[in-house]
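Protocol step 4 of 5: obtain the predicted structure for the target chain.
Materials: sequence only (see below). No template structures provided, no constraints applied. The aim of this step is simply to have a reference model before the mutagenesis design in step 5. Sequence pasted as it appears in the construct record:
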Amino acid sequence: MNTTTIQHSSVSMKDLLTQANFDLPKEGDVVKGEIISVSKNNIFIDLGAFGTGIVYPGEFYDNLNMQKTLIPGQKISAILIDIETEDGFRELSLKQAQKTTAWHDIKKLKDDGTVITTPIININKGGAIVEIGGIQGFLPLSQLSSENYPKVEGGDTTKIVQHLQKLKNKNVKIKILDFNEEETKLIVSEKAVGDEETKKEIEKFEIGDVVEGIITGVTDFGAFVSLTPNTPDKETGGDKPEDINKTGDSEQEEPEEDGNMPEVTSVEGLIHISEIDWKLISDPRDFLKKGQRVKAKIISIDGTKISLSLKALKQDPWQGIDKKYPVGTSLKATITKVNNYGALAALDEEITGLIPSSEFVGKKPADSAEAGNEIDVTVVSVDPEEHKLILTLSQHDKSKDVEPETSDNPNNEED
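Step 4 output (structure tokens):
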């Protein structure tokens, strides 16, 4: 078996170099050399006129794979830890050099706006962990691409983590957003990679365009839609576009079958819950499903964020509402929701009015009204432009509201 013998003089190398007026590196400087030999006990590196460097095995305790990648003849950089050991070698650190070089590379990658492909090595509830040149970086939830962003119901942390687990070991394309070597902080973004492409795509759209897309996720606050290519149509003359949405369990279009999803662009929009329909909606999932094809109107563009509306493609039921329900109209209404401000009551399938809390004669609305109850109301105020309609309880319902429900307490005294 071939062995490598490292010879050195009994005379101090430092003294020899000083006599030769050689400019000595200082501790902490980066030096370059060529690997002479690699073993479990040490790694020897030829530093030329500066002698022989040695790297001890402690350098690799937390990164065993690094030592396996080193071979004789390989040129390498290292940090000088000690100018001369007791054996006359220059003690070096590859790990420190790697970090120093990595941070330098990170700065250049950020300055150049370079796109980096790297695997996700770990996850936490706030996002994912990646590694660039041995430096761990944080990929926040907000910086994930729309494809990988966890569209989780109610923002449930457990479900978010479960979703992110699927991304572990997956390669992602990222850009460096921010870094701080002293604080060992590195923030990256997957979303930023697609921003330039998305911005170019968004330039094709304008507020008022009618677009088609595929619903990619439904949450408590609305639905995300990936827009299909070549769909922006300029709405003209109030023509009503073909309505393919048909909200409602019995009418909605069936989701596309897996494997037959239409082509989509990098542009994604959001249909907020308030823009699904003119009537009050409590859960978007009752009307929209993942994979469903929809047609919507662009109502806002803010940077890379597009807001969409389904109800904008339908006739506004509030137009002429002051004629349909003029002030003073008395009718029956069904309570749909109760909160601290009062109770919402549906006059028909599309129009809902507010019964203010003051109508409940000193009681909390929740103690006097319940969703599903039918009550007698009178219209006291109508504002078609603001879509507001105020109701008052009939005298009969007001009297019921203050009367005791049973005769167990004839004096109407509180227990």
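Step 4 remarks: Residues 94-112 form the longest helix (19 residues). The radius of gyration is 35 Å.
Proceed to step 5.
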